[in-house]
Amino acid sequence: MAGEHRPRPALSATIAGVLLLAGLALAVLLLPCKLEKRQAYDSAPTCPTAEPAPGCLSQTPVTLVGKERRNSSKGRPHYMLFSRDGWPSQWVRMGGGSHPVYSAAQPGDTVTATYWDGQIVEVAFQGQRETSAQEPDHNFTGFLFLTSLLLVAGGFATVVAFRHREGRTLLKPDIKPLAAMGVGVGTLAGGLLGTAVVTGVLKALLTR
């Protein structure tokens, strides 16, 4: 129909490209910090006493006070409430796909908690072990998975952009933002991969 306004098809692609660029930029900024934290955790020595201290791992008996599952946008995560002498009770969100300690331990039971950097990163009960969401390896794996998705999306956008550059569609005004976005995403994706190599991420993955 005459006068009917139709949205330009490249607008949504441009918006998606901007968001993708922002996500990759954030990943570039966070990657060194997360890698450093993971390496510090993997090489942390055992504390000389059971009392938690900075820069080392300590194992301390704690009492399970309660446990529950809470509704969230990411499902129903498992939470456990622990207490120990001289310290306030602490809710800990558990990580991973299996929860053997959560299932086996009951309120009043004594659980061995591993502390690092002031946080409970692992709990053990009757030979079963379970990590918390504060455990650096747990967070690092999720971050790398998200980064990998961004890299794949960035590579796809780059291919699309160069296909447009080789054809006549580059002359259309609504294609130029898509082409620029694709080149930018590809460049940033390459920068992220280079950062990963320089900082030792690939080596860390191969030696896990």
Describe the structure.
Keywords: Membrane, Transmembrane, Transmembrane helix. The chain crosses the membrane at residues 140-162, 183-206. The radius of gyration is 24 Å and the shape is globular. With 208 residues, it is α+β, with helices and mostly antiparallel strands. A hairpin with a 2-residue loop joins strand 2 (78-84) and strand 3 (87-93). Helix content is 48%, strand content 21%. It is built from five helices and six strands. It has helices at residues 9-42, 100-104, 136-166, 176-199, 201-206, and strands at 58-69, 78-84, 87-93, 110-116, 119-125, 128-131. The relative contact order is 0.16. It has two domains: 13-39 and 138-206; 45-134, OB fold (Dihydrolipoamide Acetyltransferase, E2P), CATH 2.40.50.
Keywords:
208 residues; alpha+beta; OB fold (Dihydrolipoamide Acetyltransferase, E2P); 2 domains; six-stranded antiparallel beta sheet; 5 helices; 21% strand; globular
Structure summary:
The protein contains five helices and six strands, in the order H-E-E-E-H-E-E-E-H-H-H. It is an alpha+beta fold and 208 residues long.
Secondary structure layout:
Elements: H1 9-42, E1 58-69, E2 78-84, E3 87-93, H2 100-104, E4 110-116, E5 119-125, E6 128-131, H3 136-166, H4 176-199, H5 201-206
Antiparallel strand pairs: 1-2, 1-4, 2-3, 4-5, 5-6
Helix pairs in contact: 1-3, 1-4, 3-4
Q: How far apart are the first and last residues' alpha carbons, in Å? A: 61 Å
Shape: globular
- Overall number of domains: 2
Number of strands: 6
Order of helices and strands: HEEEHEEEHHH
Strand order of the largest sheet: 3-2-1-4-5-6
Helices and strands: which structural class? alpha+beta
State the helicity in percent bands: 40-55%
